[in-house]
Design brief:
The complex is a heterodimer of chains A (204) and B (164).
Chain A lengths: L1 H11 L10 H9 L5 H22 L11 H8 L1 H18 L6 H41 L3 H7 L2 H46 L3
Chain B lengths: L2 H25 L3 H18 L9 H16 L26 H15 L3 H11 L4 H8 L3 H20 L1
Helix pairs in contact in B: 1-2, 1-3, 1-5, 2-3, 5-7, 6-7
The chains are: A mainly alpha (204), B mainly alpha (164).
Chain lengths: 204, 164
């Protein structure tokens, strides 16, 4: 192929055409901060991970006006071991990411890290959703004079309406969060996913 | 930070810096992007350097980290609009070897390469650097057979772009 030969010739003789950076210039570069995708994923993931923790810790403080049943509290504390397990997994995955792996393994490891955080987010959303829905219902019944009074005074239709409204608000809220989350990583990982698909395609 | 380590790294990089320039040449098409990618590759190399054992050649190791950064890790800068294009400006051949048609063809070649996807660019890079299929397969994480198939397809694609 003629043109490729020409390119090859130019390539082999191109050494003198590139700028020559001095020792000092290179030294300054290694002091600068990376802006790699892994770093961004790491920062965003840390925010996500801490969000779960903050939510779990803050939970009791906004409940003080309304009395929730004990099982709901126990339920919320169950979150901690799971969150810590996710943090452990995330750290383990993150440590595995190395620029010296081959391209495919590197991409796999980055995507695996993302997957862990995605499961974590799903866990938080499902858990948070259940908690939010149950807590809203209990709060509402207490405002109406307690569950017993509420049961007595409320017609079946109102009962159903209250539950539907709570479910709707919960799903809407979770949907918006998941949408933002999806968009965020969609943009960040678009190129990586495309390149990974390109390498995977070869094996099919 | 270990200054001895810093010193040996910067010295080696200064000597082999053209490898990074060459990766940047294929993956970017203006000065700013070239410099951005150069810097990111340098940082990634430096981060990985403590694990460099010296059993591989420094240059071979650079190929891998450099390409990984360009394909996988690097987030393209948004500052690319309104910057000067490479084509026809940078890397002019020296006067004594200057050939108008050759220069024109090279410009077209680089333009065509920039239309390839990131994996195809990596293949072109490894081809231009005379890497054999074993090394290409190890760098990208695909089999040698697939590397060969993909290389041929990439060359065909390049040819098609040029013939358009």
């Amino acid at each position: 192929m003629d043109r490729l030969d020409l390119l090859k010739k130019d390539w082999d003789n191109s050494d003198s055409k590139y700028p020559k950076l001095s020792y000092d210039e290179i030294y300054k570069m290694i002091l600068k901060k990376s802006s790699s995708i892994v770093k961004w994923i790491f920062i965003i993931s840390l925010i996500e991970l801490s969000l779960g923790l903050i939510l779990a810790i803050l939970n009791p403080s906004f409940e003080h006006k309304i009395e929730y049943p004990k099982w709901l509290d126990t339920f919320s504390y169950l979150m901690f071991p799971v969150i810590f397990y996710f943090i452990y997994l995330f750290h383990k995955n993150y440590k595995k990411i190395s620029a010296t792996d081959n391209a495919k393994v590197l991409m796999q490891n980055i995507l695996r890290t993302r997957k862990t955080v995605r499961y974590y987010i799903l866990f938080n959303l499902i858990f948070g959703g259940i908690f939010f829905a149950v807590a809203s219902f209990i709060a509402y019944t207490q405002l109406e004079g307690g569950i017993a009074a509420f049961n007595e005074a409320t017609s079946t239709t109102k009962y159903v309406v209250v539950i539907i409204v709570i479910l709707f608000v919960t799903i809407l809220f979770l949907g918006i969060i998941y949408g933002i989350y999806y968009l965020l990583y969609g943009i960040l990982l678009k190129r990586l996913k495309r390149n990974y698909a390109e390498l995977k395609k070869l094996e099919d | 930070m270990n200054t001895e380590l810093e010193h040996s790294f910067v010295e080696l990089l200064e000597k082999h810096q053209n490898i990074i320039h060459k990766v940047c040449r294929l993956y970017t098409n203006n000065y700013d992007a070239h410099n951005d990618l150069f810097q990111e590759i340098t940082i990634q190399l430096w981060k990985a350097y403590p694990k460099f054992r010296g059993d591989a050649k420094f240059s071979t190791w650079m190929y891998r980290v450099g390409l990984n950064t360009a394909i996988t890790l690097y987030r393209k800068s948004k500052r690319r609009v309104n910057t000067q294009d490479f084509e026809g400006v940078a890397f002019k051949m020296k006067a004594d070897e200057y050939d108008d048609t050759e220069e024109e063809q090279l410009k077209l070649m680089y333009k065509a390469i920039h239309q390839l996807n990131d994996i195809e660019k990596a293949l072109v890079f490894l081809y231009l650097e005379d890497k054999d299929y074993r090394e290409i397969s190890e760098t990208l994480g695909i089999s040698e057979v697939n590397a060969r198939v993909k290389m041929n397809r990439t060359k065909t694609k390049l040819r098609n772009i040029l013939n358009q």
